[in-house]
Write a structure and sequence with these properties.
The complex is a heterotrimer. Helices cover 41% and strands 24% of the residues of chain A. Chain A is an alpha/beta fold. Chain C is an all-alpha fold. Classes of the chains: A alpha/beta, B mainly alpha, C mainly alpha.
Chain lengths: 257, 313, 285
């Protein structure tokens, strides 16, 4: 499995005004995996994703992507290399159509075409994949929340990423919508895309992930097989409270599957 | 959104032909107006790249025109043939905008606006104090072209029309290319654009440079035409404001917006000038205020069919 | 010689601080660059001059009523027009205030003409060693500093002042706490106009003023805000004094035109390097 490593983070650290948001975090992602990233609020998960996608530069540490060091890359470079991420608070281009939003990803990130007409066709394919084709000509800001999330996904896919980082894609969705999202994510994984998913819904994490990383106060306190991680005393301690009970129930559920 | 209709292009061609025919159809005064219309159309289209497409409120236009004027005038006075002086002025302005862009485009919003205004003020004050080079506050005279007012007027009319046409072609190319698309994304959400693979800094710089090149030539040509320039007139913030207003009036980020807006404003101004000279500034101010409140997206983005239906229905 | 230059710089700086503080407040709280600010200053100056010329009212007496008039003007303008665009993009607010400024400018030119005017008070000169302190300048400096100090106290101690600070820090949170944000906006804008008008009255005693100076004062306000930081009285004070000193010193060595030039270059450099200014905190964009 080690030869199949697509992304390698080595001793990543980043602090803001004296607070360690991410502290000495090291891990790898292997091609085609789905890895869950969990941790209490403020654990540094989004900061980690920001570091990996070039939005911020680490104070210390290295990021190796497909064999090259990309630690101080800018966001557009990460995008062109095939590192995509979604946002908790969705950021489309509000006054452009759904189709144009996806076209941007097709043209600039995947680099498949510079021609606007070709981009239009390719973008439509991605919209069909996520089920948004009928809304193609609608203005992005008129979309409902579940549709916006799909648009985020369509944009990410249009980038033709090698690694896709999903940051709380299910926030604000009801149970039915979550199921649909899960199915979509599985479809994406089957395309061979490596997925890192930040999620607080344990059910989602446990049912999707091949492996789990746990972040707490910026440090990686546990990683490995979902059942092992979930039973790790350090992890349970970090999650004291209602999450503790929730987890116990879901472990029982998944054991029965 | 974007239209692929053909008739606007025919209208534009007719408009340009009309302006070009003014020496033969009308008197010197109207020919001068036509020249101003062409000139402002080009300046407005220039501003449209950075202010319309990219959405950055740049007031640097006046700095580019002023720098172009002074470069052209100084070089011409030093003996360079007129057209060469214009070309050299354009190069100087591009070098300036390329270098200053790297610095100033790191700022956004108000800070960027103020930075660009500072460029104009710096230009104006430099022109005032560097008297040995620029003639200081007294201004600079340029050798008047030979040939009499009609011939000279025609030469400059066609010069400005040529620049206007060049600017228009450039606008169309940009609008249909991935550069134009990328700039629109940047205007919508710069960070999201970055994350989708757009090299934001590069694109902004290109837009900034494009917003300067035609202004440089126009500045130089203008200096040769009126044969006298001074710091306050060459580096006038009002010029950029007018360019922005013209584009806003016509429709920002569109291909035809600047042309419609500039024609409308120049014609409007001339009619006001001739009747209400002392109210000139105030009326322009009023136009601006009304524009902001009643035509926030410009003439071309108004849904005329809806308005017509409302009126009749 | 140097101490005279520094003293001149400080006297100038005190007035500059007063000029800028209203502008800085409006920018910091409403996130609006008020292109009318220069016009307000000149208007205040003209009203003071004419009340002195026609009614014999001493400028230091007419200062308060004139400033109140400007407050009213600013309040009404903001409440009716500018409030509609506070959340719009920079270009929109800039263009609107620019347009309003042009109307004001034209109106002033028609009513007052552009002839430079100055209230010449023959107050004599104080000799301190080898330094010359014209009493009118001293009085102006004292007034300017007092006004600035008064504003500072108002911001700190009064209910309105604290509401304004709250809106500056986080307008949504302030609104949730029951503060009427549009009202605060209008009051802040009015205060900005008040300070401008008062400053105009003070300036009219020292320099000849005319409508051609509206741009000059506005430009100085920009520079001072960038140097000192937005939205705070101490920031405007620091920025004003700094600019006064810089202009005085460089003006002596390089001539007055270059002094102004250096001010703008400095502003540009600061915008790139430290846009929030010497005292600034979170910079509004």
């Amino acid at each position: 499995m080690a030869e199949d490593v697509i992304l390698n983070a080595q001793e990543l650290s980043k602090s803001f005004g004296g607070v360690n948001a991410v502290n000495n975090v090291s891990f790898s992602l292997s091609r085609g995996e789905i890895v869950g990233l969990i941790g209490p609020n403020g654990a540094g998960k989004t900061t980690l994703v920001n570091l990996l996608s070039g939005v911020i530069t680490p104070d210390r540490g290295k990021i190796i992507f497909r064999g090259s060091e990309v630690t101080s890359q800018k966001p557009y470079q990460a995008a062109r290399r095939g590192i995509a991420r979604t946002f908790q608070i969705v950021q489309p281009f509000p006054n452009m159509t759904v189709l144009e939003n996806v076209m941007a990803a097709v043209i600039f990130a995947s680099g498949r075409t510079s021609d606007l007409r070709n981009a239009r066709d390719l973008a439509l394919e991605h919209l069909s994949f996520v089920g948004l084709a009928e809304l193609a000509e609608q203005t992005a800001q008129t979309l409902t929340l579940p549709s916006r999330k799909r648009l985020e996904l369509a944009k990410s896919l249009a980038m033709q990423p090698k690694v896709l980082m999903l940051d709380e894609v299910n926030a604000g969705l009801n149970a039915v919508e979550v199921e649909k999202a899960l199915a979509l994510i599985r479809k994406i994984s089957e395309m061979g895309i490596t997925i890192l998913i930040i999620e607080h819904l344990m059910k989602v994490v446990l049912s999707l992930s091949d492996r789990i990383l746990v972040l707490h106060h910026g440090e990686l306190i546990s990683q490995g097989n979902p059942l092992d991680v979930v039973n790790d005393p350090k992890v349970i301690e970090a999650y004291l409270g209602s999450k503790f009970t929730e987890k116990k129930l879901f472990i029982k559920d998944s054991l029965h599957e | 959104m974007r239209t692929n209709r053909i008739w606007p292009y025919f209208l534009l061609a007719a408009w340009i032909l009309l302006l070009a025919a003014s020496p033969f159809l009308a008197n010197n005064y109207l020919m001068k107006i036509a020249t101003y219309i062409a000139m402002f159309a080009a300046i407005a289209m220039s501003w449209n790249f950075i202010g319309g497409y990219a959405g950055y409120p740049s007031f640097a236009t006046a700095a580019f025109v002023g720098l172009g004027s002074y470069s052209g005038a100084i070089l011409q006075n030093a003996g360079l043939p007129m057209f060469l002086a214009w070309g050299a002025a354009a190069v100087i302005v591009v070098v300036f905008s390329a270098s200053i862009g790297l610095i100033i485009l790191r700022m956004k919003g108000h800070y960027f606006a103020i930075g660009s205004i500072a460029l104009v003020d710096i230009g104006s004050h430099t022109a005032s104090s560097w008297s040995s080079l620029t003639g200081g506050g007294e201004g600079l005279n340029v050798k008047i072209m030979q040939g009499g007012p009609e011939l000279v007027g025609m030469i400059f009319l066609y010069t400005m029309l040529a620049i206007m046409l060049l600017a228009f072609i450039t606008t169309v190319i940009v609008d249909r290319s991935k550069l134009g698309f990328g700039l629109r994304c940047i205007q919508q959400n710069e960070d999201a654009a970055d994350m989708l693979g757009i090299n934001v800094m590069l694109y902004k710089n290109i837009a900034f440079i494009l917003s300067s090149v035609f202004c440089g030539i126009i500045g130089a040509a203008y200096a040769s035409w009126v044969a006298y320039i001074s710091p306050l007139d060459s580096f006038s913030i009002l010029l950029t404001l007018k360019a922005a207003v013209m584009v806003l009036l016509g429709g920002a980020g569109t291909v035809f917006g600047p042309i419609v807006g500039s024609a409308a404003l120049v014609i409007f101004e001339e009619t006001i000038w001739s009747r209400f000279l002392s109210l000139h500034q105030g009326i322009l101010g009023l136009v601006i205020v009304l524009l902001i409140f009643f035509l926030p997206n410009g003439l071309l983005k108004v849904d005329w069919s809806k308005l017509w239906a409302k009126k009749n229905g | 010689m140097l101490d005279q230059i520094i003293l001149n710089g400080l006297m100038l700086g005190a007035i500059y601080a007063c000029i800028a503080v209203g502008f800085s407040l409006v920018w910091g709280v409403l996130n609006v660059i008020n292109m009318l600010h220069g016009g307000f200053i000149i208007l205040g100056g003209y009203l003071t001059f004419f009340s002195w010329l026609h009614f014999g009212i001493h400028p230091f007496v007419s200062l308060f009523p004139v400033a109140m008039l400007l407050f009213g003007l600013g309040y009404v303008l903001q409440r009716t027009l500018i409030n509609q665009v506070v959340s719009k993009p920079v270009l929109t607010t800039l263009t609107l205030t620019f347009g309003l400024e042009m109307i004001l400018y034209n109106t002033m030119n028609l009513l007052f003409t552009a002839t430079p005017r100055r209230v010449a008070l023959d107050m004599g000169v104080l000799n301190l060693g080898d330094m010359l302190l014209p009493y009118d300048r001293v009085a102006s400096m004292v007034l300017a500093l007092s006004l600035t100090g008064l504003l500072f106290l108002t911001m700190r101690k009064s209910k309105i002042g604290r509401a304004i600070v709250a809106v500056r820090m986080d307008k949504d949170a302030a609104s949730l706490m029951g503060i009427n944000v549009p009202q605060i906006y209008a009051i802040t804008f009015g205060i900005g106009a008040f300070m401008a008008g008062a400053c105009g009255a003070i300036v009219a005693v020292i320099f000849p003023i005319s409508t051609s100076l509206t741009g000059v004062f506005l430009g100085k306000a920009f520079v001072i805000c960038v140097i000192g930081g937005l939205g705070t009285v101490p920031g405007a004070l620091v920025g004003g004094l700094a600019l006064g000193l810089i202009e005085s010193i460089t003006g002596f060595w390089f001539g007055p035109q270059n002094a102004i030039l250096i001010g703008f270059v400095l502003m540009l450099v600061l915008l790139v390097v430290r846009p929030t200014g010497l005292l600034g905190r979170k910079g509004y964009e």
